[in-house]
Amino acid sequence: MEKKQWTSLSLEVLEVSETMAGFGVSKMDFTYVDGKLVDVDVYDS
């Protein structure tokens, strides 16, 4: 049986926008108090 040779390791780097939902997808979270908009959070997926 022949020994297998190890290959050199490689590192893959991903942009956060390229993970999960894909390119350019963002989600918005709105917070209303007494019918008035008080906060908006934008999340990039």
What does this structure look like?
It comes from Paenibacillus soyae. This is Paeninodin family lasso peptide. This protein has no helices and 2 strands. It is mostly beta strands. The chain is rod-shaped. The model has no long low-confidence stretch (mean pLDDT 78).
What distinguishing features does this structure have?
45 residues, mainly beta
Tell me roughly what share of residues is in helical segments.
Answer: under 10%
Strand content bin: 35-45%
Pattern of helices and strands:
EE
Whole-angstrom Rg = 22 Å
Summed over residues and divided by their number, the pLDDT gives a mean of 78
Total DSSP helices: 0
Overall form = rod-shaped
Q: Give the N-terminus to C-terminus distance in angstroms.
A: 48 Å
- Please identify the structural class as seen in this structure: mainly beta
Poorly predicted tracts of residues = none
The total beta strand count reads: 2
Please describe the biggest sheet, giving its number of strands, its sense, and whether it closes into a barrel. Answer: 2 strands, antiparallel
- Sequence of strands across the biggest β-sheet: 1-2
